[in-house]
Amino acid sequence: MKMRRHVLTTAAIAALALLAVSGCSTRSADSGGAVPAAGFAKDAVIGVALPSKTSENWVLAGGLFTDGLKAAGFKGNVQYAGASAPVKDQQDQISAMVTNGAKVIIIGAADGGQLSTEVKAAHDAGAIVIAYDRLILNTKDVDNYVAYDNFKVGALQGQALLDGLKAKKPTGPYNIELFSGSSDDANSKVFFDGAMSVLKSKIADGTLVVGSGQTAIKQTSTAAWKAENAQSRMDALLTGTYGTKSIDGVLSPNDTLARAIITSVKAAGKPIPVVTGQDSEAESVKSIMAGEQYSTINKDTRVLVTQAIAMVKDLQVGKKAAVNDTKSYNNGVKVVPAFLLPPVIVTKVNAAAAYANDPQLARLTK
After folding, report:
1. What is the DSSP letter of 334?
2. 24-43 pLDDT, tens per residue?
3. What is the Cβ-side half-sphere exposure of residue 206, based on CA atoms within 13 angstroms?
4. Do 60 and 184 reside in the same domain of the chain?
5. Which of 92, 243, 253, 358 has the smallest C-beta neighbourhood within 10 Å, fewest atoms?
6. Distance (Å, rounded) from C-alpha 153 to C-alpha 74?
7. Res. 55 pLDDT band, cuts 50 70 90
8. 72, 73, 21: which is closest to 43 by C-alpha?
9. Residue range 189-204, pLDDT digits in tens
10. What angle do CA 146, 183, 116 make, to 5 degrees?
């Protein structure tokens, strides 16, 4: 996958940090999270463990962390898990970061349910653990979570699906299908639950008809977030359920899968339904402007990385990492103090405004 945005300058990173801090005026730097007793050295090692490069936003994040940590004076150690054995790779990488004396380890989990041993070892060695974008599950040893509000992401996707359907046809019933993300990604359930908080009542009253009957997350999941898996499932749904029927909408959890679903529908010779997405990938922004994909979610990776680095800076000087939510994200053992950023729904109507501050995407809306 190619990177779609340029690496930020030091000044730009500082400006985005200010934006993140000013975006939620009610939070307090003393409202939650862990902190070393006396901080740590300004040039300390900071580990960043990211999953496989499954989307362009993960690719972008790695570059931003590398440059942003360096600009802040830290020794950044940014690692990606490999595609063939991502969980084992990430476990080994985190263990190596602990051995190398990392004071903070930021983890975008390959599988948030299989890192408890490594996270405990990090804590035992005195490191602070920040879950980045994906919650780390079933451990008390994760200190903070920094992410966009992922339940709200799902709710926005569900509402976008309803809005898009109504714009095409004022009244139902509407034939739809549901897709969710990879079962090893804790966010997949959060996205799906958020969407279903909007869609469930409409399915119950018959406004929405799931033709396949597949409404459980296990039935709708897409292994490894791979486009080919989504396309294969969509092919099967079209053949088995929509031979002579139309399909009006598809809940897709991200842009990569949305484009695969649209490819499947085109190959079947059917009109493109309303398809949701997430991540503001360049190809999907083009698709939205062309009138194909209906919506995406803008979760600016630049701001998210900047906020994660701001949390590291707080910890370095002996402060608690700033949080603005201490209730929402229970990992099965504890409610993890979180800094949540607000996601933004994007359709063709508001794309130009939504990406006005992102030159790489703004040019695609003209």
Report:
1. -
2. 333 333 334 555 556 999 99
3. 0
4. no
5. 243
6. 32
7. confident
8. 73
9. 999 999 999 999 999 9
10. 55
Residues 155 and 287 in one domain: yes
**Cis status, amide bond into 343, omega within 30 of 0:** no
Q: Are 1 and 52 in contact (CB under 8 A)?
A: no
Question: Model's pTM, two decimal places?
Answer: 0.84
CB-count exposure of residue 348 (10 Å: 0-12, 13-18, 19+)? middle
Q: Token digits for 98? A: 């602990």
Q: Give the residue carrying structure tokens 């679903």.
A: 261
Given CA atoms 354, 359, 364, 365 in this order, what sign does their dihedral have? positive
CA distance 258 to 351: 17
Residue 14 has pLDDT above 50, yes or no: no
Inter-residue contact 289 to 265 (CB < 8 Å): no
Domain residue limits at 132 = 10-142+300-342
Order of strands across the sheet that contains 104-107: 75-80, 45-50, 104-107, 128-132, 144-148, 338-341
Can you give the CATH number for the domain in which 16 is found? 3.40.50.2300
